[in-house]
Amino acid sequence: MQVPFPCIINTLGLSVYGIVIGIFPPIILAIALNYVRIKWFGKTVQMVTYMPYFISTVLIVGILTQMLSLTGPVNHLIQSLGGEAIHFMGDPKLFKTLYVFSDVWQKTGYNAVIYISALAAVDQELHEAATVDGANIWQRIRYIDIPSILPTAVILLIMSCGHILTIGYEKVLLLQNDLNMATSDIISTYVYRIGLTSMQYSYSTAIGIFQSLVSLVLLLVVNKISDKVSETSLF
User: Fold this and answer.
1) Whole-prediction pTM value?
2) Any idea what the CATH number is for the domain that residue 106 is in?
3) Gap between the Cα atoms of 148 and 115, Å rounded
4) How far apart are CA 179 and CA 225, in angstroms?
5) Residue 56 parent element (H or E)
6) For residue 146, what pLDDT is reported?
């Protein structure tokens, strides 16, 4: 027996999609909060965007299911505008988008804290000197803030690449149904079915070891490439 090829493709597709979409929102949020001069407003926005990270996966999926069901508020809005109801939870083409964007919503605030910390370490004299030289806010962001947080972004990207094949199964399993199985079945859910449902423990363990080895190789390769290209690496 071997891992079905569609499971590998779905896993890679979901991981790459998540990395590409998820890398920019925390950076944008961190930079925006860094320039907020009203402290209470900045702290409020940070708290509101940070809170979803602590919401349980079951509750997140429950909210999605209620909001995007055929009789939910989103479809009511679509129908009120003259459109037809969309079966969000059952359309295989929409599964990856629902998963990734709900993940971005849940983790953007938490990930932004890392970039906010990096921005806090930037010498304020650089901003003062740039302002004296006539640099506007966009130029300061481009030439001071982005280069300052770029090493942090590269490190997080390297770590994300090391988890390409090891997506957690909980959220995928909760969103999964017979209608979207074609695109939602990933290696983790396959291992769950094989290991716990079919009780093929040795086979599921072998797949887990395979995932870990591939993740290690990817981590080393991406880390080496990053070291050569940007001179930033984990080790």
Assistant:
1) 0.88
2) 1.10.3720.10
3) 9
4) 40
5) none
6) 92
